[in-house]
Task: inverse folding
DNA sequence: TAACATTGCATATCAAGCTATGCAAGTGGT
DNA sequence: ACCACTTGCATAGCTTGATATGCAATGTTA
């Protein structure tokens, strides 16, 4: 009974994510954007002036990963980092006008990727798929928390 | 009507894949393995002596990515690359005894990740989820082919 | 207030993915 | 045999993800 990658949820999720990323990259490269900055932009388009930590929490990305992404975004003229006057440690992230101007085209590109990927699926199948993804994400986040904070008394993991 | 990342299949797929990778990484690091080599090992455990190209086709990975992965695997004593006597271009990939010895523990770790992730889902929900992932993968692969081979006469893209 | 802990961010280093490019080894046509 | 094309792989250089570590600024506490 050999392990079959094509029936492994983890392998399929990895493959699926790579295909989504390839598609998105192809569509947003003409806008001068890349896949790694996209999630940060989605958050910032909704709410400017966040700290790095707030971005990290909203996106479930490790802090050094976000720091590097923000450095690239600053280099590419998408954001500016400004010191918080009240707390000398904090750098607040502000979008440039150029980044704000890209919101419409960029989100349209992302919606096109989703529409492309989900074409051929019924409404209920799409809804079920996304609901299941969210449930698994929640499960894996909880088990990651267990790894970080090992056993707070109840439900010892044998 | 702002784009909502938490309802975007692409964003969810990316997040899900990162969580799967974190979990797998935590479990196979003690074995001296990493997530990038894992898919290659799954294929090679089933069938040794493949060429790089054959691995690429089975895993849908770009060729230079696979070349780098194989270099790391060789460095870490998991594989050996041997010139094909019949074709001087080809390097056939052979597992070392060390790599073969890891199959049981490694696949058990991967199964544990999947079991962990899918805990709380019913059998039919798991089956539906994996079926949908496979359908979307197929859809995205087809549309990538369209990008590479643009319009062979029929079904021009607008 | 001095000592210690925490918080926010940066840097170094690596893995894992990608595109672009180069080159050697085969293949095919003339 | 020679030229052009194709195939298989490697290398260079980038992005995106991670861990480990350091450090300055802030909080806390004796």
Result:
């Amino acid at each position: 009974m050999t392990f079959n990658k094509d029936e492994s949820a983890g392998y399929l999720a990895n493959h699926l994510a790579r295909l989504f990323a390839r598609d998105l990259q192809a569509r947003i490269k003409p806008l001068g954007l890349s896949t790694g900055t996209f999630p940060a932009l989605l958050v910032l388009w909704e709410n400017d002036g966040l700290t790095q930590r707030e971005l990290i929490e909203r996106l479930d990305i490790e802090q050094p990963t976000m720091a590097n992404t923000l450095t690239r975004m600053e280099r590419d003229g998408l954001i500016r980092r400004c010191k918080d006057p009240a707390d000398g440690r904090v750098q607040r992230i502000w979008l440039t006008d150029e980044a704000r101007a890209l919101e419409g085209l960029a989100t349209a590109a992302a919606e096109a990727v989703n529409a492309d990927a989900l074409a051929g699926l019924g409404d209920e199948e799409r809804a079920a798929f996304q609901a299941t993804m969210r449930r698994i994400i929640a499960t894996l986040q909880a088990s990651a928390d267990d790894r970080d904070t090992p056993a707070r008394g109840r439900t010892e993991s044998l």
Summary: Residues 21, 34-37, 61-62, 64-65, 68-69, 72, 87-90 of chain B lie near DNA strand C (CB under 10 Å from a C1').
